[in-house]
Write a structure and sequence with these properties.
By secondary structure, the chain is of the alpha+beta class. Helix content is about 55%, strand content about 10%.
């Protein structure tokens, strides 16, 4: 049987344990609104008796109190992994959806400033000239409409190029942010390991690390593996971004400007289109292919056009490719008919637009190289150079002009090409938006599951504090009772006969 004094130690252990549990509850309540904080709890365990086994040993079956075996986090690795996975996918799809939305806004279709409206105005101009073949004013208006059309093509192409440049700049910034987070995770790994090896509590540092890991998943689709010693390794594209206490930096490589991505050198000479990709900063030749995250979405947006007409290339380069095709078809069709017509003075019409090579959407030779949509211009300088009559047709003949006007309704003309491109972009945009919405819903659901498990419930903490308070009071009452018992033994026994 243990001594009366041993009961004091037992009661004291309860007071210490309940006080620690109350401190943990206070920490939880204090951080109820702290982003990324994970609820903690004091894990209590009974302390067994200290009597050693021997032949004459006896045991009354009573332990020697309670102790705090640790302060654990209410984190669920499965829920954390699920949240990172959903965050990765949602971020990539949201980036793609945003790029399509911005592109549609820049193209302005349908609208008065869009290319479709400008094409319609241009064809209407040919109708007007055909209806007034003997007047110069209609021809002047036609030239103005043609110049406005080419300016629209230039502007549309430049807008796409600007969006591409902005996207690349943003991607470079995101890569820098990724490297900073990777360095932070490696540093947290070392600090957590040092603290836990010395018997300390690194829960708050673990919260910081989990937040950084979720951000990395949203940036580059990072995946995580946890070591037995509590450190984590972070992987991107199958290679380690963070390995224990060390990190590796990523770098952005490939096409530096839109011309390289679409297949043109600085001087406009056609080249093989280049992509934008990730590499390791210390191993430039080794590519890193993120499977998710904002950066993966950005790289898809920045990708070069497909080699075929599938439209599966980069969001922006494919749109630019369609503009080139429209400019080429427009110039080729109009020039072919206009060259076969004559002016009011009987002069051959020649090229209406600066000539393009039908086999390649670039201007042939000289300094006039580059994408057709950016270089196309009106070749005529004066209204009297507009030709609408067939050779020998007379002063009022406008048969060729009518043929040119009819190009606007051709199923293989520039309008049809652009209409198909607009529908294609719209469909892809709608699909991207739908997929992004579904992915975001899944991410939000995963976040709610994770928060439900890890966040602080103040009502629950209040109930827990009341229970802890009562346990503390009970331990104090035990201590008071033992004090009374000892007082009786020490001060009130052995008084008989005095």
């Amino acid at each position: 049987m243990g001594s009366t004094f041993s009961g004091i130690s037992t009661a004291l252990s309860s007071l210490i344990a309940q006080r620690t549990a109350l401190d943990v509850a206070g920490q939880n309540v204090a951080n109820a609104n702290t982003a990324g904080y994970t609820r903690q709890r004091a894990d209590l365990g009974a302390v067994a008796g200290t009597q050693s086994a021997s032949m004459f040993a006896t045991n009354n079956g009573v332990g020697t109190g309670v102790q705090v075996t640790g302060i654990s986090r209410s984190a669920d690795p499965f829920l954390d992994t699920k949240l990172r996975s959903q965050t990765s996918g949602a971020a990539a799809l949201a980036t793609l959806s945003s790029a399509y939305s911005t592109l549609e806004s820049r193209l302005g279709e349908p609208g008065a400033s869009g290319l479709s409206a400008q094409l319609q105005t241009f064809w209407n101009g040919w109708h007007d000239v055909s209806n007034a073949a003997d007047t110069i004013s209609a021809r002047s208006v036609l030239l103005d409409d043609a110049r406005q059309l080419t300016e629209t093509l230039h502007t549309q192409y430049q807008n796409i190029a600007t969006q591409w440049a902005d996207t690349r700049t943003t991607t470079a910034s995101l890569v820098t942010q990724t490297n900073t987070l990777a360095t932070n995770v490696a540093d947290l790994n070392k600090r957590i390991l040092d603290i836990t090896n010395n018997g300390g509590n690194a829960n708050e540092l673990s919260d910081q690390r989990d937040q950084a890991l979720t951000q990395l998943a949203g940036l580059v689709g990072a995946t995580v593996q946890t070591r037995q010693d509590g450190q984590v390794d972070v992987y991107v594209g199958g290679d380690a971004l963070v390995f224990g206490g060390s990190s590796h930096a990523l770098a952005l490589a490939g096409a530096q400007d839109f011309s390289q991505a679409t297949g043109y050198a600085t001087d406009g000479t056609p080249i093989t289109p280049q992509d934008v990709h990730l590499t390791w900063a210390d191993t430039p030749g080794k590519r890193v292919v993120p499977t998710g995250g904002t950066v993966a979405g950005q790289l898809t947006v920045l990708a070069p056009p497909a080699a075929d007409d599938s439209g599966t290339g980069g969001v922006l380069t494919e749109a630019a490719k369609r503009l080139d095709e429209v400019a080429t078809r427009l110039a080729t069709d109009v020039n072919t008919l206009h060259a076969g017509a004559v002016t009011t003075t009987g002069t051959a019409g020649g090229a209406f637009f600066s000539p393009l090579d039908p086999s390649d959407p670039t201007f042939p030779g000289g300094p006039a190289k580059g994408p057709a949509a950016l270089r196309i211009s009106v070749a005529l300088s004066t209204a009297d150079q507009v030709a609408v009559a067939a050779p020998g047709g007379g002063a009022y003949d406008a048969s060729v002009g009518q043929q040119i006007a009819a190009l606007g309704t051709s199923t293989s003309g520039a309008d049809a090409l652009w209409g198909k491109a607009v529908v294609e972009i719209g469909n892809r945009s709608a699909a991207a938006t739908s997929r992004s919405s579904v992915a975001e819903s899944a991410r939000a659901s995963a976040e709610q599951d994770q928060l439900a498990n890890a966040s602080v419930d103040t009502d629950e903490e209040t109930v827990g504090m009341i229970a802890t308070q009562r346990a503390y009071q009970a331990a104090a009452r035990v201590l008071t009772t033992l004090d009374d018992m000892l007082d009786t033994l020490i001060n009130k026994t052995g008084l008989v006969g005095r």
